[in-house]
Write a structure and sequence with these properties.
By secondary structure, this protein is α/β, with parallel strands linked by helices. Helix content is about 40%, strand content about 20%. It has a single domain, classed as 3-Layer(aba) Sandwich (Rossmann fold).
Amino acid sequence: MQPSLPRRPIRPTLRQRFEFRAARLLFSLPAAVQVRLSGRPPVVVDGCALHPQMQLLLALHHLWHGGLIAELTPDMARQTFRNDTATIAGRPIPVGAVADIAIDSGGTIAARHYAPAASGPRPLMVYYHGGGFVLGDLDGHDNLCRRVCRDADMHVLSVDYRLAPEHPFPAAVDDACAAFRWACANAARLGATPRVAVGGDSAGGNLAAVVSQKAMTAGGPAPCAQVLLYPALDRTVARPSLELFGKGFFISRADIDWYMLQYTGSTIAQPDPAQNPLCAKEFSGLPPALIVTAGFDPLRDEGEAYADALRQAGVPVVLKRFDGLLHGFCSMATISSACDAALGEIIAKLRKLIADTKNVAPGSRSPIQQRPV
């Protein structure tokens, strides 16, 4: 294994610890009380009922933050994001081992390896965090990766890819691809099997999809599976969910435009599959996919459109929408029982996806049932 990098553990402040406990307490109240505390009647949009915990969370988020990410500088937005992730971090979930490592790809890419407690080789997932290609780091998704490692019984390699605007497109894509290639070449050194999956949330889901597409055309190793959590996949089309949930539901359309501007230098989207994977001309031969969407998410429809595109190309897909939840809900599992239950269901589906692909060569057709759930 390559030399370890210094650890940067999250150390919540006293205020953040108080806010964490307060949120846990509020989210344990009866649903009717949560709705009342939110200051608005029950929210139903497009046939989806917003979960009371999410309704209260939106009220608390507005109280604590008020404005939009799009109104901040990148450094200010990053500090806000770090503060938020520190507040909801909770106690670190124990796993077999955790090590910060350096991936040598011509430059150095920081990464964090999570090993399961059980002995013997286990599958490996290369994970790309969310944050609009501008925010996020290894610490912000630490407990999410720990949970996947522990409950899916698999190795996780979390990648600290370069962020925009200091490192605009295609820097994140280059790092994501390099990290995947490194993981394939070094899986045995990490204690994992050669079966390497990719996964990510939001912008990280975009990178996981791009890595899968590029691996298909490059002729090298390909992921055994792709796990896309509320992924950002196409800015070239304004689908209905972008209009329905583009304001007042945690991540706004203005925020999405701001992220795109930082990442690509423009708010005019290009039909480049390396930026917008749904613009690809060919989807056949891609790895089996688990795609997760949230009912109250501006990105909902593009994730589900991607699932449709994969299915039409003969790629096995498990699509799961959590109707009452918001974008980013997997990171809220430490404070919300609804998000915690959803994450548990996702991990169960992940375990089955990996098991179903065990004897399927990358790029071949799989017997996995293509089904929405």
